[in-house]
Task: structure prediction
Amino acid sequence: MPKLPKLPQGMPTPKQVLDFIQSSDIPAGKREIAKAFGLKGQEKIKLKALLKDMAEEGLIDGSKSAFHRMGGVPKVTTLRIVDVDDGELIAEPDNWDPEAPSKPPRLIVREPKMRGAKRPPALKRGDRILARTEETERGWIAHPMKKLPARTEGLMGIVEIDRTGKAWLAPVDKRVRQSAPIADRGEAEEGQLVIAERVGRSERAGVKVIEVVGDPLAPRSFSLIAIAKHGIPHIFPEEVLEEAPRAAKLKLSDKAREDLRHLPIVAIDPADARDHDDAIWAEPDGQGGFNALVAIADVSFYVRPGSALDREARKRGNSVYFPDRVVPMLPEVLSADVCSLMEGEDRAAMACHMHINADGKVSSFRFTRALVRIAHNIAYEDAQGLVDAGNPPEYLANLWAAWKALAAARDARDPLELELPERRVVLDAKGQIAEIAIRERLDAHRVVEDFMIAANVAAAKALEAKTAPVVYRIHEPPSREKLIALRDYLATMGKKLSLGQVVTPGLFNRMLKDISDEAERALVMEAVLRSQTQAYYGPANAGHFGLSLGSYAHFTSPIRRYSDLLVHRALVDAYKLEQPAPPGSIPATSGLSDRDRASLQQVSDAISQTERRAMEAERDTIDRYVAAWLSGRVGEVFDTRITGVQSFGFFATIVGLGGDGLVPISTLGGEYFRHDEAAKALVGSDSGTTYATGDRLKLKLAEANPLTGSLKFVLPDADTGRIEPRGNRPQERRGAGGPPKNAGKFMVGKRGRPGNIRHQGRKK
Result:
């Protein structure tokens, strides 16, 4: 082992600490750092404070026994094999924090070259390993030390008892195939949904039940499963709950704010909205254009950099919306009360004043801190009803007229138009499912959406005009690789996509508009959607391809998105809108902190990850509700559309309802089916029967599992008997102990009762 050069003795600088951590051949904790720099007594106390500061600033991560630089990995850690690239195994840290300020590093796995009986088993995608790591010029390298047992994802599951009385934790994640033995089930009873933790280093030691959630089919359980599975922070620390009421008591100054209480500003939201962070107003300017206002909750006035509220909001990144609950980014005293723009109440707002010319373009804008009093909180459906009735109140008539101008400018811009239906879960007062349907898309939604887009563009341009920091909302054009895949796929349908032209959203729009056949159009739309990149946040502008905009930032939802809060703070600084808080209560400044400015890239990466986490959790929960809704309709035949094809079968979704289910290839009959990857189809070798993405067909529902959200279908005339679900555990031996025979086949034979709280809609 090479020796490190002699280090300077005495209190180190942050850079010296980082250099030591990275160059050390052994895990470097507080004790090793203190020894290396010869620290004693009070210096060790100062070192502890320094390490804490470095962790908060995003320079290092880890624990007092083993630190590593932020974005790096520990010297010895658990990894998961995630990919194979040109024959090389690629791994990522198994427990990478989704709130970490950077993406998980990818490590090349160097398997030991051994022969004979000592040769370890070959590793494959999905395996977990304990490995020693090193950072080289080529990148991170992992040297496996041993292969680890498969992990029970989320440690949430159903308690099942086998015939010998042994308890097992059956997983509720459809990706997990193995149950875990329960070493201590406490008060938990068979059939209950529980949260557990491991009791030893080896998974053979089993798990211990630490919380009984209760009835696994109670609708509230579906969102709890998602919260646990995705690690969503949902309990506010005491210091946050103590600070929130103090922040809420900050007094609004009439003199320091523009008084807009005389304007009939209206907030149009879902009927069941838990918070109201935007409101709009418009009036004709007498010259064919409009004066317009977008008023947004002034969250930055209450949530200030360096406060406990801010630290927790940054950690959460965004609110998460489930059919039965919201996991808010901010405590309810702020999110649902003081910050929320409520009818008849004086509220702090960030106001975006805009002039919309006769062509629908925003010709000028300005930002102020304002005092508003919302004239009306109105639901989308009610606003649409008043307009459709033919004699809407003046405040709505003006909004619709201004929107028509904005819509004309949007049409000229030609943003990407993809029909992406949103499933809506309706619950009754008891939390039971009443209905699951596709949310109707109204003009009222488009009115609010186009006003919000205009304000978001204005915020980005206003900050650019001052060369101020911007957290952009970025949607990059499709990569060449994805465009080539799209071109090749379209070629199988006799359609051409020339890559020699500039690819714009309008190109895709025209392609879809020219297709009259509904099934074929759905097929192409799916392919276009798959070709798109995922939107993210970042301080370096790359435009918004989908909206056909050169500059775009999220400004309109600071109650539920941390990105918007950062944009508000940047506007406070750039346009000198500071309103200090009284000393002693909460931090004084409401603009960007030095930490915000220094770590804008890191926090952008982190909130992009929390956004993806929220989307996955929300989608998983809706899938579980859909499966519960369908569990009493097993055996019925539905109109479906194929959404994906693999070598082992194809996935289909019920038209008008959603919920993807698998049709195993083994149920398609006796002939051999070839997987045509380019055409995304399964083709029968004898009959030529083809099942391709986008095809419409009738399928019979064979299984619906509410706990995993999984569905299984078969052809209506299939005579295959019951499809065997995924095996959770090894086959039970006759007369031996082991998991019960039906473990993991949690089925519901009774339809869920009607049930109501609507899933809150989103605004761009």
About this structure: The mean pLDDT is 83. Residues 247 and 302 are 5 Å apart (CA to CA). Residues 600-630 form the longest helix (31 residues).
